[in-house]
Amino acid sequence: MSDENSRECQHSEGFLVLSRRSALLAGASVVPTAPFVRSAKAQDAVSPLALPVSAEHSLTVRTNINGGAFEINLDARTSLLDMLREHLGLAGSKKGCDHGQCGACTVHVDGRRVASCLTLAAKVEGREVTTIEGLSDGDRLHPMQQAFIDHDALQCGYCTPGQIMAAVACVHEGNATSSERIREYMSGNICRCGAYVGIVAAIQDAAERMERG
Ligand code: FES
Ligand code: FES
Questions:
Q1: Topology adopted by domain 3-134
Q2: Distance CA 46, CA 20 (A)
Q3: Residue 192 near ligand 1, beta carbon < 6 Å
Q4: What is the pTM assigned to this prediction?
């Protein structure tokens, strides 16, 4: 990385500052040091789909994503989903409808599930965001991820990250006590492949493992 880019990718008060320019220009990855211990790696390529940052709408968001502190300059109108996908390269959260109707974009904010397409990035200032990339413990899958594999709870997989994030929240909320209740509290997550039987079985299985573990 050139000196110029190094200056733009500066650490301040433990936060990684990603300017749009440095993100576009830096040749090497912006590899976070401690405390970036999870799989949330900030990538240095801001997608062309990201809203361009004008002086008029510029906003700096400081937030914690998957255990790492980030400071990100973006357009104030940017959704949390676009911040994750287009600014940070965390593409696990999927954009299905972009209107809060499919659940593919589900992430956790301070432990509660939200549709990231309907959440402004500005709203996660000072809060803790967990995405599908931050769910596993290194190479060890979260029990819900393992249960989805064990129960073949997916076909194309597009809805799966959102299903898993919603399912983990469903268990934590105490709503995984019966298949009827699971169906009700997972009704905001649509699977176009119709893998619902496996999804319900996976949640029931994982709920037991989560309670034990
Ligand atoms: S992409 Fe957010 S609910 Fe569909
Ligand atoms: S597995 Fe294809 S949309 Fe759910």
A1: Ubiquitin-like (UB roll) (3.10.20)
A2: 7
A3: no
A4: 0.81
**Which SS3 state, helix, strand or coil, does residue 113 take?**
strand
Q: Does residue 169 contact residue 120 with C-beta atoms inside 8 Å? A: no
42: number of CA atoms within 13 Å, CB side? 31
Per-residue pLDDT at 37 exceeds 80: no
Atom of ligand 1 nearest to the CA of 106: 2
Q: Which of 181, 81, 166, 185 is nearest to 124 (CA)?
A: 81
CB 115 near ligand 1, within 6 Å: yes
Is 143-212 in the same CATH topology as 3-134?
no
pLDDT band per the 50, 70, 90 thresholds, residue 35: very low
Domain at 143-212: CATH code: 1.10.150.120
Distance CA 15, CA 56 (A): 24
Which residue's CA is minimally distant from atom 4 of ligand 2? 191
Kindly report, residue by residue over 61-102, the tens digit of the pLDDT.
999 999 999 999 999 999 999 999 999 999 999 999 999 999
CB of residue 104 inside a 6 A radius of ligand 1 = yes
Q: How far is CA 97 from CA 162, 165, 181, in A?
A: 12, 17, 25
The Cα–Cα gap between 152 and 167 comes to 15
